[in-house]
Write a structure and sequence with these properties.
By secondary structure, the protein is α+β, with helices and mostly antiparallel strands. Helices cover 27% and strands 23% of the residues. Strands 15-12-14-13-17-18-16 form a 7-stranded antiparallel sheet. A 5-stranded mixed sheet has the order 1-2-4-3-19, covered by helices on one side. The chain starts with 23 loop residues before the first helix and ends with a strand. The protein binds 2-acetamido-2-deoxy-beta-D-glucopyranose (4 copies). Belongs to the oxygen-dependent FAD-linked oxidoreductase family.
């Protein structure tokens, strides 16, 4: 949920080359004829504009277009499609694997940063948000109208939609759950509206898998009244041994199944301790209920742990909570540049029906405390509370959206950067992170129904890991095949494979800022 304060393994995976007959001159002329500004390899600022957020990747697109309207997005998609290029949307550009640049060389990038309109409708509390907006700017615009939306904590991640877990999520849902309708540019350039009333199959699909289906240019969301007070809390232990740090996880699982309110959002954060076999641990989050009830709610969990090294419990405004969660990055993203990183990350969604076993927790904590101490990476692990009693995320019917994991207790993010956040990423850093995940999974029974989170997209993961539910559901919508056909040119027998593969790219507009549309003609 958080990007750390922040390496160049050249990832020149040039796989593409859909067709030899690409006429870039023609592309440039067509874009210019539609008034779409764009940069190409020969442009002076091309290098800067084509840098990936994760500097582990270096991806060279054919060009980057900066449309200012839905009509220009449509024209740009059609122009790229006519040249048989992969066309990809970049929203915030935070895809962990550079999908906003196409993931591999040779794509046409549709950068949405010039599409930043936001309107809030007082009558029904909906807001229409163009997908060039970053989360911080969305927060400010909604807050000015007394409204708020559930989303992650990084202010620079752009404009929402397709995942969107944050501390208010147990109370308000995922960002994708708030979407009422969306404007989508399809692979053939057609502009479609998707909602519960029109193009319902597309509406189902984009809430969880939008990049497979088109470029979402705006979403209409249901906002919530900004809570009058949010209690931001953090409890830190500088040096916990393996037994005690294991108890912090096990007891959080137990606590989560007690009658905790939906208004409590929390995560455990692990980092290097002062010596091998010890860890630094922090429990932090936001409580969106009355300040006076906070202490009693968290007491049953805190009393299972030693006295913290330090703690902070601060009630304040909703905007103050968003500012604190941003960890030093400005909420107004016009005031400072984004900060890149060089990293490798993985994730696990633990099932509520089969929480982590004591053996898995101990192996995992032991691994972090020992291998973590000797690792040359700068790493952290977040154990985020998604489910548990009263969380509304898991009450949304599994068939309602393409998001496949409505049975999650914890979302665990394993994140390791190069020591100075610059390239190169150390080669042993991959095995280090893989080992964290293995320490858990290898200590669970075969067939443990865990998953992975698409926002924390991982280029080493095989397709099925994100959950196959969407594939199954997708096939029960016969008309959806038409959409897919239009976008992916997949044949029905290929559908399952195609959707699974594209599905990895899901949530990217919302949370990691890129949508990817494959145009195979
Ligand atoms: C590419 O397009 C330009 C402009 O339309 C045209 O002049 C040129 O002949 C084309 N090149 C090829 C190889 O078709
Ligand atoms: C909310 O109200 C606006 C008009 O103010 C209307 O255009 C829109 O369709 C409404 N949205 C929903 C989901 O009812
Ligand atoms: C964000 O900062 C910019 C540049 O300082 C300023 O022009 C703009 O008004 C600010 N936006 C908000 C919502 O405060
Ligand atoms: C574009 O694709 C959609 C979805 O298949 C289809 O409904 C629409 O008619 C197509 N538009 C054109 C101009 O071919």
């Amino acid at each position: 949920m958080r990007l750390p304060a922040l390496s160049l393994l050249l990832h020149l995976a040039g796989i593409i080359s859909l067709c030899a007959a690409q006429n870039i001159t023609k592309l440039q002329q067509t874009l210019a004829a539609h008034g779409v500004s764009a940069v190409y390899k020969t442009s002076g600022n091309f290098k800067t504009l084509s840098q990936a957020f994760n500097r582990r990747f270096s991806v060279v697109p054919v060009g980057i277009a900066f449309p200012t309207s839905v009509a220009q997005v449509s024209a740009a998609v059609a122009a790229g499609s006519a040249q048989k290029l992969e066309v990809v949307a970049r929203s915030g550009g935070h895809s962990y694997i550079a999908n906003g640049l196409g993931g591999t060389n040779g794509a046409l990038v549709i950068d949405l940063s010039k599409m930043k309109a936001i309107s809030v409708r007082a009558a029904n509390g909906t807001a229409v948000i163009e997908t060039g907006n970053r989360l911080g700017d969305v927060t400010l615009a909604l807050n000015a109208a007394g409204r708020a939306l559930p989303h992650g904590t990084c202010p620079y991640v752009r404009s929402l939609g397709y995942g969107g877990f944050g501390f208010a999520g147990r109370m308000w849902g995922l960002t994708l759950d708030t979407i009422k309708s969306a404007t989508v540019v399809l692979a053939n350039g057609t502009v479609a509206t998707a909602s519960a009333k029109v193009n319902t199959d597309l509406f189902w699909a984009i809430r969880g898998a939008s990049p497979s289906f088109g470029i979402v240019t705006s979403i209409e969301v249901q906002t919530f009244p900004a809570p009058p007070s949010v209690t931001v809390f953090s409890y830190s232990w500088d040096s916990l041994d393996i037994t005690t740090a294991s108890a912090a996880i096990a007891n959080l699982q137990t606590f989560a199944t007690s009658n905790i309110p939906a208004s409590l959002g929390a995560e455990l954060v692990f980092g290097t301790g002062p010596s091998s076999g010890r860890l630094s641990v922090e429990w932090n989050g936001g409580y969106y209920g009355a300040e006076s009830s906070f202490a009693a709610i968290v007491k049953p969990y805190l009393q299972t742990l030693p006295k913290p090294s330090r703690s902070s419990v601060k009630p304040g405004t909703y905007l103050a909570s968003v500012t604190t969660f941003a960890q030093g990055q400005p909420v107004n993203t016009s005031t400072a540049a984004d900060i890149p990183d060089t990293f490798y990350t993985k994730s696990i969604l633990t099932p509520e029906s089969a929480p982590m076993s004591a053996a898995a927790i101990k192996a995992f904590v032991t691994y972090m405390a020992k291998q973590g101490f000797s690792s040359d990476t700068s790493w952290f692990v977040e154990v985020e509370l998604v489910g548990g009693r009263n969380s509304i995320i898991n009450t949304v019917p599994l068939d309602a959206t393409a998001f496949a994991k409505r049975d999650t207790l914890f979302l665990i993010q394993f994140y390791a950067s190069s020591a100075n956040n610059k390239p190169p990423y150390p080669s042993d850093g991959f095995a280090f992170v893989d080992g964290m995940v293995a320490s858990i999974v290898n200590n669970e029974p075969a067939g443990w129904p865990y998953g992975a989170y698409l926002n924390y997209i991982d280029d080493k993961l095989t397709n099925g890991a994100y959950g196959s539910r969407s594939t199954l559901q997708c096939c029960s919508f016969p008309s959806l095949i038409l959409w897919i056909h239009a976008v992916l040119h997949a044949v029905c027998s290929n559908l399952e494979y195609e959707i699974e593969r594209k599905h990895q790219l899901l949530l990217l507009i919302g949370s990691r800022g890129s949508a990817k549309t494959f145009l195979k003609k």
